[in-house]
Each structure stands twice: as structure tokens, then as C-alpha cells.
Amino acid sequence: MVSNLPRWDLKGLFPDIKPKITFCQRSLLENIKEAYAVANMEGKIIVFDDEKNNMENFIQEYNGTEVNYRPAEFDHSEIPAWLILTSGTTGLPKVAIIPYDRLLSGICCWWQPFTAAFETALTMSTFQWLSSLLYFVSSSLRKYTRLQCSVPLTPQLLVAIINKYRPECTAWTPHLLGQFLAGTEKICDMSCFIYVAVTGSPMEKHIFDKFKERTNAFLYLVYGMTELLVPGFDYSEETPFGSVGKPYDRYEYKLVDDQGNEVDKPFQSGELWMKGDAFFKGYLANPEETRKMLTEDGWFKTGDLFHRDEDNNYYFVERKRLLIKSSGYWISPLQLESVIKQHPDVANVVVVGIPDKERMEVPVAAIAKRPGRDVKPQEIFDLVREKMPDLRQLYGGLFFVEAIPMTASGKVHRTKIKETTLTAKRILPTL
């Protein structure tokens, strides 16, 4: 288990996943014991940094000397191979069920664009997340050395690891990649990379350009999520910037509007639905959420809005559940964020909606300043007023934060930001 997984997440997950054995660092031991107690069950706990109860002792106790051992026979399409946490960016994490046959299909699909051999892959996410698990399982299949750190990966440690071990493949989120590129230009040689996968949120153009200045690696911009398991689209170096690529032949795709009708014209947005044999099978012990995401005839509702161009390139528009409905109109947080980021002294910003008696919801901006810089609230309000129509202003105001909270998988933690927004001292615009 990742060392910074919140106690309430553990307590919510254990009654469903019912783990018989848990591997963790000492810092998480008490939280895991409490989670077992809440679930009214017992389980074995292996503590990596405890000499009396670490992995070495576990192997010595269970040394695998059973005579005439035979692997179990089971239905690979029914029995779960992985129970994977979703990222929890907009709520509590759920547990996605991945059977064995879909896992094998997913591993093959992930590595399809990576045709050249490489020797070392660096995994930066913790072991419970999809990218780390894929790197772990794939290492024996692709015959590469997996480079993984057992302590929190700070920027300084990451620089040292890249400079010393020269990994050729890794995965980043756009946010973490942008931060790394900005702070390491003179101290980290990234020329070793051949492939870099980026997933989790849309890539901004200035990060893309800065990456290309630092390395000739293939930047694999992946549209995906835990539930999909596989890259959703065929992305290549010929894909137009901003697009996630073209549909694969092996899956079915459609865009669906709010009335449930299929969108069949270019540049019209709709929710992306996909059907295929590589996706998750449902959420563990959560039939209600499963019914929301999977239709009876097998379509997976991604919850993401897309449009496509005349050449069938697909473009991510917005996470549907993040849209803010204000005075009867939909407001895109990502659109507002892109405007506010144009201010030279804004390091990062997240826009969320909060309840409002008159407008139903109003957008609020949580802003992190660049170090040593000053941002006057009126400058932000003026910038939004210049770029956006009256119905899409920051009527909920703004407030400043030291840093934008992130999930353990490196994504913006919008749920925490929304909780903070409800109690923050907001600066309101002058109307």
C-alpha cells in the first residue's frame, strides 16, 4: 500500500476487498491495523522496513516446498486477476475488477506502439496504481529491468536516478512532467529516454514543446483510465497536437449527447462510449456505480466529452461530471483554468463549482502563485472578463493556496479542493 493513502480510504476499502495479506511500509502500519478492525477481520501484514516482519522473513516462513504442486484451474474470464483502485480525483476511490483474460489483452495493447527494445523502465507511481502494475508484470514479458524506488520520489532523487541509471522508458502525468521540466533543465540529462507515456489529464502545448527540446523520445499521449485498462486511441507522432488519436479497429466507439442520441457530425461534442473485450468488468461490491458506467449491452460510459474532426481524430473536451451548471448554462472548469493560466505569475489553478442560491452553482478558482511572485485578484477577474462571456465569470470568486493538492497517482485532487473551497475566505469580484 502507498504510504500516503488516507486512513478513511483504507477504512472504506477493506470491507470490500477483504485482503488476507497486506504489504506496506512501517508508516502505514497503524492505519492498516485500524482498517482491519473496522472490517472486523484479521490479515497478515508484511512491513518492508521492519527487520522482524519483512519480506525476507515471510519468504523463509513460506518457502514454497510443497510436493506435486499444480496451479489451480479456473475460468480466466470470470476470476479477477487485479482489483485496482481508481484514482479518486472526483470522489472516493472505487475498486475496478480486471479478469485474467482482459489483463493479458491489456498488457499486449499497452506495448503495441513500443516496437524497439529497451533495457530499463522507470516506474514512478506506487505499486497499487495501474501504470506501476503494468510495468511490474510486463518486465518479464518485455525482458527489461524495472527501476523502482521504495522511498518517496522527490525531484532531487528523480534527477539522481535518471542521471545514474539512464532509464529508456517511463510514464508521467502532465502536471508532474511540467514541474520536472521547469526545474531540472540544467541538472538532468533526459537524452536517455526512448519512450515516455503521459496520461491522467490533457497535455498543455508549452509542456509538449519543452519536452521536445529536452529529448527525442516518443511522447506517447495516452487517453486512458483505470476502468479502460488499455490506451483508448491509436496515438502516433503524426497525430495532430490536442488530439488523443484515432479509434482502434478492435473496439467500438460512439459519442452520445444528453438526450441519449448518437452524435454523427464532426466537431459536435458528446460523451464517449466504448465497447471491447479489454475493459474492466465492474466495480467490486458496488453494483450501483457499475450500472451507471456499464450498459446492459456492454457499452462503457467514460464520463468524458469528446468531439472528432473530419479525419476521425478525437479530441478531449471536458470531464462531464466536472461541468458547472450556472444559471442554466454549462461552464467548463478547464476552459476557465486555461484562461487564468495565461497570467504570468500563476503557477497552477483549479476551478470548481459550489452551490449558489441564485445561480444554482458558481465557479471558484483556487490559485497557486509562482514562487516570489504577487498576483492581484483584480488582475485575474479582469483577465477572465476579457476572455470569457458574462455567463462564465468567476462569480464564486477566488482564493490562493500554497500548492494544488494531488492524488497519490499525480492527478489534481478536485474533491479536496472543493472541500477547501466551501470553507475558504474567498475574494469576490466587483460586479
UniProtKB/TrEMBL annotation:
Residues 336-411 form the AMP-binding enzyme C-terminal domain. Gene3D superfamilies: 3.30.300.30, N-terminal domain of ligase-like. Pfam families: AMP-binding, AMP-binding_C. It is found in: Peroxisome. SUPFAM superfamilies: Acetyl-CoA synthetase-like. InterPro entries: AMP-bd_C (IPR025110), AMP-bd_C_sf (IPR045851), AMP-binding_CS (IPR020845), AMP-dep_synth/lig_dom (IPR000873), ANL_N_sf (IPR042099). Its main location: other. The keyword DNA damage does not apply. Residues 5-284 form the AMP-dependent synthetase/ligase domain. Keywords: Peroxisome. PANTHER family: GH16244P-RELATED, LONG-CHAIN-FATTY-ACID--COA LIGASE. This is Luciferin 4-monooxygenase. It comes from Chilo suppressalis (Asiatic rice borer moth).
